[in-house]
Amino acid sequence: MRPRRNWFIAGVAAVCLVTAVALSHLIEPGVRVQKVTLAGDTPALKFIPTGVGPHPVALLAHGFASSKEALFRYGEALAVAGFICYSVGHPEHGASSRKYAFMDAVQTLEAIAREVGPVDVFAGHSMGGATGGEAVREGGDETRAFHCHWFHAGSR
Fold it and tell me: What per-residue confidence (pLDDT) applies to 18?
């Protein structure tokens, strides 16, 4: 009876995988997504609400060993709420061809904030929170609301 049970589990797993892939390609109604390049050579996703503006700006930064796509649903949710949202890729992660250096990543976030600014909300996860926090601390990013997840002072 065990082989039959294993086939059943494999079948259910396959259906779940196909469903997840299909759902991952759906975008919330009222949101457009564009691939953009910011601050010279930083790959990013831009989430644009279809309603009339002006729209506040949100900036998202991913964590270590991740990519700009990891924050896709957050960007989508912020766009549904009326924000123009940018999910940026860090150097040496995802589509970026640059080598990672902490202060370079901080300066890149500062340059992006100046380019798209003013930034109303910044949210960073792990490494993204560390680089964003340093950008705000150094005064190069005058974000009005700052949130970082899983960041502590010793992360650098």
Answer: 77
Q: CB–CB of 129/149 below 8 Å?
A: yes
Cite the beta strand spans of 11-155 per DSSP E: 31-38, 42-49, 57-61, 84-88, 121-125, 145-149
Q: Residue type at 112?
A: I
Which residues face 88 on adjacent strands?
Answer: 44, 61
**What average pLDDT does this structure show over 110-133?**
85
Beta bridge partners of 84: 57
Mean pLDDT of 69-83: 91
Amino acid at 89: G
DSSP 126: T
Q: If DSSP codes are grouped into helix, strand and coil, which group holds residue 104?
A: helix
Select the highest-mean-pLDDT range: 40-54, 82-96, 141-155. Answer: 40-54
In angstroms, the CA 148 to CA 108 distance is 17
Residue 82 three-state SS: coil
Identify the residue with better confidence: 141 or 152: 141
Residue from 80, 81, 82, 60 nearest 71 by CA: 60
